[in-house]
Amino acid sequence: MDRAITLDEERKRWFEEYKRTSLEMRKMYAEIDKLEYERHWYPFWMGVAIVTSLLTSLATLATLLFSIANRS
């Protein structure tokens, strides 16, 4: 009976250790995924922002020039 209790305690201890290391691994992989995402997609989204800004500026300038040309 004592051996059965010991095995049960050992299983519980192993499972707790497994849960702890599993959580640490998930956190580590999440951090790696976040860094990979930032490394690959950050320049792309900065490019999108710059292009959008330039197009907006050009559209505003064209509208301004068009309205000035129509007044004359």
Secondary-structure element order, as H and E?
Answer: H
Gross morphology:
rod-shaped
CA radius of gyration is: 30 Å
Mean pLDDT: 89
Distance between the termini: 103 Å
Describe the structure.
The protein is mostly helical. It is built from 1 helix and no strands. The longest helix is centred in the middle third of the chain and has 70 residues, at 2-71. It is rod-shaped. The model has no long low-confidence stretch (mean pLDDT 89).
Key words describing this protein structure:
72 residues, mainly alpha, 1 helix, 97% helix, 0% strand, rod-shaped
Give the SSE layout.
Elements: H1 2-71
Brief sketch in words of this structure:
The protein has one helix spanning 2-71.
